[in-house]
Write a structure and sequence with these properties.
- This protein is an alpha+beta fold and 263 residues long.
- It has 8 helices and 9 strands.
- It starts with 20 loop residues before the first strand and ends with a strand.
């Protein structure tokens, strides 16, 4: 995968003031030739995301929250697959989603959804605030003893843009659905452009993004729901009432985060 030079091998000599943490080079096939990410040894608190972003960004490092989940599984146990990962820029989001749709929609949706509808247009309403400010605010809500995910840690990943974080570490969360996560990063790039998304949190098989420019009408949300189904069918198939319109209304309309889980 084409990437910027990885600053993680020289992190100790970089002068960054970081909390105690660990470099991860463990993959499903053994030790990778360089670290894939650094993450904190302890849970983070509000403000840590902003501090890590400010410290890491000049070196080409971006923050992401790390959720050990019910498995208590941290990145060294995630079966990362960087060797299988291509470059997100080599993939077209519309083509990627159309291929997923063709594989899943005819069998799992009704006849009215047989044809891939194409990418949804960007919402008409502009972002209310900077997408990076929103990501920092949502990270603060997640972290700390009173946060939604009090045990989460934070990582720094060498990535050009937030959407590329999955590809940069060779994340294997969707491995049962897609074995080259760069294709999903290509879709996330498109969502960055149209919806001002940022990758907020990764778990063993879960992904959460913040959404700076969400759909504000039901028509906009319905158009996007098709992309979500293609990207992660389990979001609809594993959640009653298993309907795209209901999913659009409850999960996409005016929502500041989107979450995904692959079985």
């Amino acid at each position: 995968m084409a990437t910027l030079p990885n600053p993680l091998p020289s992190l100790a000599a970089s002068g960054l003031q970081l909390p105690p943490g660990s470099l991860v080079d463990a993959t499903i096939d053994g030790t990778w030739h360089e670290p894939l990410l650094w993450y904190t040894d302890a849970p983070v608190v509000p403000g840590d995301w902003s501090r890590l972003r400010a410290a890491g960004r000049p070196l080409g490092l971006l923050p992401v929250l790390i959720d050990g989940g019910r498995r208590d599984a941290w990145p060294e146990d995630w079966d990362l697959v960087p060797e299988n990962t291509s470059y997100p820029g080599d993939h077209d989001a519309d083509e990627v989603l159309a291929n997923y749709w063709a594989e899943c929609a005819p069998e799992e949706l009704d006849a009215a959804h047989a044809e891939w509808p194409g990418l949804a247009p960007a919402p008409g309403a502009p972002s209310a605030q900077s997408p990076d400010v929103l990501a920092a605010e949502m990270a603060d809500m997640c972290t700390g003893p009173e946060g939604w995910f009090p045990s989460v840690r934070a990582a720094l990943v060498p990535a050009r843009r937030s959407a590329d974080i999955l590809a940069a570490i060779g994340w294997s969360g969707p491995l049962n659905y897609e074995n080259d996560v760069a294709r999903l990063s290509a879709v996330l790039r498109s969502w960055e452009d149209r919806y001002d998304t940022r990758v907020l949190m990764l778990g063993f098989d879960t992904l959460t993004v913040t959404v700076g420019r969400p759909p504000t009408t039901l028509d906009e949300a319905r158009a996007l729901a098709a992309e979500h189904f293609a990207f992660c069918p389990d979001n609809i198939n594993q959640n009653p009432p298993y309907d795209l319109d209901d999913y659009a209304r409850s999960n996409l309309l005016d929502q500041s985060t989107w979450s995904f889980w692959w079985d």
